[in-house]
Specification:
With 134 residues, the protein is α+β, with helices and mostly antiparallel strands. It has one domain: Cytidine Deaminase, domain 2 (3-Layer(aba) Sandwich), CATH 3.40.140. It is 34% helix and 22% strand. The protein contains five helices and five strands, in the order αββαβαββαα. A five-stranded mixed beta sheet has the order 2-1-3-4-5. A hairpin with a 4-residue loop joins strand 1 and strand 2. The longest helix is centred in the N-terminal third of the chain and has 12 residues. It starts with a helix and ends with a helix. The model has no long low-confidence stretch (mean pLDDT 94).
């Protein structure tokens, strides 16, 4: 599956977002090694700290179905005129389940898309660096 198709799935996932407070819908799509795609959306809560981001929602979908690694990620924020990357908590969780070279694409309603990797989003992943040092 190419990144354009994965991004379209993320865009569709954003439609299911529960965002009554911020009105900022986000969708994510994760490609597993076997070609399965797991999607997720943001789910807000009155207690904002309990909100779950689309990226972590997609990870939970995959992990709960037995997937432990993902090959690619797309994130869509249809209400944003510019691309919006994953938050720090999501970067940490994603690095648990994705190789540093795994491609990531994110974008908003405008034409601009950002193509990067997990390693570029989270360059100093200390737990993986320490594991490699032993």
């Amino acid at each position: 599956m190419d990144m354009d198709a994965l991004f379209r799935i993320a865009w569709q996932a954003a439609e299911a977002a529960y965002a009554p407070y911020s009105r900022f819908r986000v969708g994510a799509a994760l490609l597993a090694g076997d070609g399965t795609v797991f999607s997720g959306c943001n789910v807000e809560n009155r207690s904002f700290g309990l909100t779950i981001c689309a990226e972590r929602s997609a990870v939970v979908q995959g992990v709960s179905r037995g997937c432990r690694s993902f090959r690619a990620l797309a994130i869509a924020a249809p209400g944003s005129p510019v691309p919006v990357g994953p938050c720090g908590a999501c970067r940490q969780v994603l690095s648990e389940f994705m190789d540093r070279e795994a491609p990531v694409r994110f974008g908003g309603s405008g034409p601009q898309r950002v193509d990067t990797t997990i390693g570029e989003l989270y360059p100093y992943d200390s737990l993986h660096e320490l594991a490699g040092a032993t």
